[in-house]
Amino acid sequence: MTPPAVILSQPQMGENVGAAARAMKNFGLTELVLIAPKMEWPNDKAQMLASGSGDILEAAKIFPTAVDALAPYQLVLATTARGRDVVKDIHTPEAGARRLRAASNEGVRTAILFGGERAGLDNDEMSLADAVITIPTADFWSLNLGQAVLLLGYEWLKSADNTPAVRTRPSIAKPASREELVGLFEHLEKELDAAEFLFPPAKRETMVRNIRAMIMRSRLSDQEVRTIRGMIVALVRNKYRGNK
């Protein structure tokens, strides 16, 4: 599978091209194409902003027109903020990335076309695209070129990412043993008795069972049991000091 090419039409600032290359590197995109760049190329400022992705800049292809640049690609999605003016399918970034992924999996050569910083894509360039991707924004819709590439690159990588939505870092501590839990119960109940918390006596047994059940639901580790027992010791010690 070949990831989609990133095609930048008439970019004006080397810094933006460098930032785009850096974003590409982060998300597994490797093919950069420039259409009639408005800055000197190769560009020192682009190399500075690329930060570790200079290889993408060095391999970038330059074409004079969109027709030439887009010639090898079988599926092209164009990015624009003016989606309502276009008589084409308009995708969200997520949906566009899924379409690109599905096509790439079938061996189709794909590309994402980005307009220049000042005016975006013109009508002739838009006419060469199969569909459009519009990035949802709030009241201010203008995005930096590097930001736009970053957002689409993220969606591309995410379209094949199986990372769970929520993860808990595995603990190196062992689950507490019954012996350690019983030690905690007895320690806590002793101090609660001393503080006259388990009152009245007729309800003591029920209160103890409820406290133990609450602790058991927490599935404490051996380290957590030791920490809680240390907290109990510290609280009791400081209480006696205060009474003096």
What is the general shape?
Answer: elongated
Could you say which structural class the secondary elements and strand pairing correspond to?
A: alpha/beta
Instruction: Return the domain count.
Output: 2
At the fourth CATH level, what is the homologous superfamily of the largest domain?
Answer: SPOUT methyltransferase, trefoil knot domain
Count helical runs: 10
CATH class of the largest domain: Alpha Beta
Low-confidence stretches: none
Listing every helix as H and every strand as E from the N terminus to the C terminus, the arrangement reads EHEHHEHEEHEHEHHHH
Q: Mind describing the biggest β-sheet? A: 7 strands, parallel
Mean pLDDT: 92
Strand proportion, as a percent range, falls in: 5-15%
Strands in their spatial order, largest beta sheet = 3-2-1-6-4-7-5
From the coordinates shown, what is the CATH architecture of the largest domain?
A: 3-Layer(aba) Sandwich
Radius of gyration (Å): 31 Å
Helix residue percentage? 40-55%
Assembly status: single chain
Distance between the termini: 76 Å
**CATH fold descriptor of the largest domain:** Alpha/beta knot
Number of strands: 7
